[in-house]
Design goal:
elongated, 15 strands, Jelly Rolls, single chain, mainly beta
């Protein structure tokens, strides 16, 4: 994962995290909120291209509030053979199929506050050989206070 940090030094700061492209038949790696941090979600997005194997696949985002228990889950419509799709959740949740119609649901994961240890997971049931994901992209906010060092604020 690559984290892109803001230039300002305190307040509610925006960050972007870009994952690596997983191997075929693998889903993007889980994202865990590090110890000592609290995140406010902005958006989450990932793409997939299905192989030409006839099978229905089902994609979903999960939030594991304590790293174990699922507190939120967003499921998407079934995917079929040879289809490229992008799954996004921000203010709304969207599944866009390339060459097809986008499906949107009201409500998304944006604004959700996650404590240290929480896990963001992208899942995919019935994955087939040669199904290929893109890198996941996560936009979030993190609060940073002034740090007092001796006689100076930094």
């Amino acid at each position: 994962m690559t984290r892109y940090a803001p230039k300002q030094e305190f307040g509610l700061l925006p960050y972007t995290m870009v994952g690596s492209v997983p191997a075929a038949t693998a889903v993007p790696a889980d994202i865990t909120v590090p110890a000592g941090e609290i995140w406010k979600l902005g958006s989450l997005s990932v793409g997939v291209t299905n192989a030409a194997v006839a099978a229905s696949r089902y994609a979903f985002f999960q939030i594991l509030c304590d790293g174990v228990n699922i507190s939120h889950e967003v499921g998407f419509a079934a995917l079929t053979t040879g289809l490229s799709s992008r799954f996004s959740s921000g203010l709304t949740t969207t599944q866009r199929n390339v060459g097809g119609v986008a499906t949107a649901w009201s409500g998304g994961l944006a604004g959700m506050v996650l404590n240290a240890g929480a896990i963001i997971r992208f899942g995919y049931s019935n994955i087939q050989a040669a199904d290929q994901f893109t890198a996941s992209v996560l936009c979030y906010f993190k609060w940073k206070d002034y740090e007092f060092k001796g006689h100076e604020w930094s």
